[in-house]
Design brief:
about 450 residues, alpha/beta, Aspartate Aminotransferase, domain 1, Aspartate Aminotransferase, domain 2, 2 domains, 5-stranded mixed β-sheet, 3-stranded antiparallel β-sheet, 16 helices, about 40% helix, binds pyridoxal-5'-phosphate, tryptophanase activity
């Protein structure tokens, strides 16, 4: 059931095909280099790209910009207490700021950190402390056609192997990312969270939940986990799941429903004190932490809206609508559909291309060329040297696009697939020094000799 109507609008238009061709070439076939005015439907990310509600805009005007003791900070702290169940909060400029504050406090050289799957900034912050990030996804997580309710779960068997190998002393932190962004936005069951809590107790580790999409995760739990059949409220599920964690890191750009912001939250007064010290160094005084008072105020409202049943239902329905329209025209997608995005299976869509021809990135470029649609590659181009499916993520900004936009995306994908065999693939033209983040800045060019997988 549709849950919103528009009050403020932003004009968009589809640039001519000729302009799109030129823009793509000038961007080095990397859509991160495109100007947003050259994009028609922008599904690059759901991070900070959503629409705020009228209540959030109203809160923004009343933001308290005091350096210390801001009223808007109190509003945020009370929202974090009510919605997520944590007593203490340290605001930060965005999620990675929270990661720096928390992981910089908890980790040191030589530590090893299991996580269901590290999001890229999480991996980078763990590594930045001299610790080793280890992904422990549930078996089958990277199989685009395996139907299972909680493909985001953390594999405790894998995490135990890690501890057996390096010793519990070297594993001071276990992380669970809900939903599992880097595994196609798949949800994590509350049962899995309980088991990770017990595991962390066994090895005397701090259990951190990366809670960026806590509300979407709760909506999936309500649909799929028998203990939480439809009559349990979203906010109850959120509090139950998060109650097992010692601390959370949060990006307000996701389920905080704002354009920038984040925080660390915990019930542990000692951890809170240590995080505050590091926050002063990197983010700002602990009652603003790199955010304007108005943004704290808007995030306080956003957190409460995120657990509203009509919001989350509309959210998941919107992603499902895009998925269904794509499936109706025969586009292969990762199943089941995750929380914040639809993932196209480029390996299947462009099966004539070998991984070295970057089928995912080639599909991203064709979607832009054909219909001004911007997605992002998460395959051989983004993750060099790993065994991953060739996925293209179409992330859905919150409360922003409607069915007509998604119809355009589906028509675009259908047209691309009709002439799929003519897509020649790409090769690298220039690459930055850090391979982990090359997809943001590397440039490519069309392959001169067509590649085939056989
Ligand atoms: C976005 C995200 C982050 C980082 O948050 P930013 O606000 O982009 O810095 C961390 N973890 C997950 C799972 C995310 O999706």
């Amino acid at each position: 059931m549709v849950a919103y109507k528009s009050k403020v609008v932003e004009p968009i238009s589809l640039p001519s095909r000729e302009r799109r061709e030129r823009a793509l070439e000038a961007a080095g076939y990397n859509v991160f280099n495109l100007a947003s005015e050259d994009v028609f439907v922008d599904l690059l990310t759901d991070s900070g790209t959503g629409a705020m509600s009228d209540a959030q805009w109203a809160a923004l005007v009343r933001g308290d910009e005091a350096y210390a003791g801001s009223r808007s900070f109190d509003r945020l702290a009370s929202a974090v207490r009510d919605v997520m169940g944590f007593e203490y909060v340290v605001p930060t400029h965005q999620g990675r700021g929270a990661e720096n504050v928390l992981y910089g406090t908890l980790l040191s050289e030589g530590d090893v950190v299991p996580n269901n799957t590290h999001f890229d900034t999480t991996r980078a912050h763990v590594a930045n402390q001299g610790a080793e990030p280890i992904d422990c996804p549930t078996p089958g997580a990277f199989d685009p056609s395996l139907e299972a309710p909680f493909k985001g779960d953390l594999s405790l068997e894998h995490a135990r192997e890690v501890v057996d190998e390096v010793g519990a002393d070297r594993v001071p932190v276990v992380i669970q990312t809900i939903t599992n962004n880097s595994t196609a936005g798949q949800p994590v069951s509350v049962e899995n969270t309980r088991r990770v809590r017990a595991f962390a107790d066994e090895i005397d580790a701090t259990f951190v939940i990366d809670a960026c999409r806590f509300a979407e995760n709760a909506a999936f739990v309500r649909q799929r986990e028998p203990d939480f059949a439809d009559d349990v409220a979203i906010d109850e599920i959120v509090r139950e799941q998060l109650s097992h964690a010692d601390a959370v890191v949060m990006s307000g750009k996701k389920d905080g429903l704002v354009n920038a912001g984040g925080f660390v939250a915990t019930d542990d007064p000692d951890l809170f004190d240590r995080c505050k010290q590091r926050a002063i160094l990197y983010e700002g005084f602990p009652t603003y932490g790199g955010m304007a008072g108005r943004d704290l105020a808007a995030m306080a409202v956003g957190l409460r809206e995120a657990v509203d049943a009509s919001y989350v239902e509309d959210r998941l329905e919107s992603v499902q609508t895009l998925a269904s329209l794509l499936e109706d025209v025969g586009v292969p997608i990762y199943r089941p559909v995750g929380g914040h995005a639809v993932y196209l299976d480029a390996g299947e869509a462009l099966s004539h291309l070998s991984p070295s021809a970057f089928p995912g990135q080639a599909l991203v470029c064709e979607l832009y060329r054909e219909g001004g649609v911007r997605g992002v590659e998460l395959g051989s181009f983004a993750f060099p040297g790993t065994e991953r499916p060739e996925l293209v993520r179409l992330a859905v900004p919150r409360r922003t696009y409607h069915r007509e936009h998604f119809e355009h995306v589906a028509e675009t994908a259908e047209a691309v697939l009709e002439s799929a065999t003519t897509v020649a693939g790409l090769e690298l033209a220039s690459e930055p020094t850090m391979p982990e983040i090359r997809h943001f800045t590397a440039e490519l060019e069309p392959r001169s000799t067509p590649s085939t997988s056989n």
